[in-house]
């Protein structure tokens, strides 16, 4: 009888292992990627999934991993997929149109489903010190163009790639009819532009629109009111066979589209990059604070 009980217990345990809902979550190797991936992982765990994490990959290896089935789900940026993976040249300036086009291409080519877009855009931007924006009433790139064209000396800091690219700094200046002499444009590594503008060595810095350093250095991001910069909205990607097996995933991860925006992700990135907190703790505290996980 005792032997039968042991056998029965082993059968039950084997069934539970077999029945466990297992999913592999991937992430890119930068702060924002880790924060979002941890949110995906935590929401799925809270819903009863067993999650395996493949974190800290660069874009192309992560892309290959979802295409060959090594990763089931991760967050990707619309602009990255459009230009880097699908080699599209056409510029689309409506975020929902771009999302729909990318989602259509990825499903047709790879049977990968793009779940609802997360409503923030992590793209290039131009930023100034808060006091500079207040003093000169500059809130948009059009405001900046008017200020520059009125004869004010304005020093810009951009990274070498953005300086040299055909669709980079001078294309942006041309789009806004901003007359900037080349001698007023300094090149430096992207991370140094924040420190340089904060210290007053330059007046306008090329930045990334969700970088934690925007908060650290009290910078104002100028609105791209002519939609020059490409769109990089994140969205959750999942392999079709996984979504068919677990259709509840879409509803489980819906909070990402409801409770994340540009201001929030900047603050979450700030907690990691400036305050030194682990991405998992930041993600967990945020989701717990909203009552989304136990």
TrEMBL record:
Alphabetic keyword roster: Signal
Residues in the signal sequence: 1-19
Pfam families: OpuAC
Residue ranges constituting the ABC-type glycine betaine transport system substrate-binding domain according to the UniProt record: 21-288
InterPro entries xrefs: ABC_Gly_betaine_transp_sub-bd (IPR007210)
Protein name (database record): Glycine/betaine ABC transporter substrate-binding protein
């Amino acid at each position: 009888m005792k032997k039968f009980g042991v056998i029965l217990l082993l059968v039950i345990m084997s069934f539970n292992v077999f029945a466990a809902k297992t999913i592999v979550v991937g992430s890119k190797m930068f702060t924002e990627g880790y924060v979002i991936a941890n949110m995906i992982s935590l929401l799925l765990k809270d819903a009863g999934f067993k999650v395996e994490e493949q974190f800290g990959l660069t874009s192309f290896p992560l892309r290959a991993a979802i295409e060959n089935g090594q990763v089931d789900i991760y967050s990707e940026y619309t602009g990255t997929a459009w230009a880097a993976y699908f080699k599209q040249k056409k510029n689309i300036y409506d975020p929902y149109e771009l999302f729909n086009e990318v989602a259509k291409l990825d499903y047709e080519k790879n049977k990968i489903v793009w779940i609802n877009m997360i409503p923030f855009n992590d793209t290039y931007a131009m930023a100034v010190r808060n006091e500079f924006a207040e003093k000169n009433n500059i809130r948009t790139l059009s405001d900046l163009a008017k200020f520059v064209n009125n004869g004010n000396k304005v020093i810009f800091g951009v990274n070498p790639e953005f300086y040299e690219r055909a669709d980079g700094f001078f294309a942006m200046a041309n789009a806004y009819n901003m007359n900037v002499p080349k001698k007023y444009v300094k090149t430096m590594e992207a991370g140094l532009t924040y420190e340089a503008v904060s210290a007053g060595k330059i007046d306008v810095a090329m930045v990334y629109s969700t970088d934690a350093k925007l908060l650290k250095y009290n910078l104002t991001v100028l609105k791209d009111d002519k939609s020059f910069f490409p769109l990089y909205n994140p969205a959750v990607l999942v392999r079709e066979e996984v979504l068919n097996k677990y259709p509840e995933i879409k509803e489980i991860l819906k909070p990402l589209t409801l409770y994340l925006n540009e201001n929030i992700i900047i603050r979450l990135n700030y907690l990691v990059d400036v305050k030194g907190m682990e991405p998992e703790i930041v993600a967990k505290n945020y989701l717990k604070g909203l009552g989304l996980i136990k």
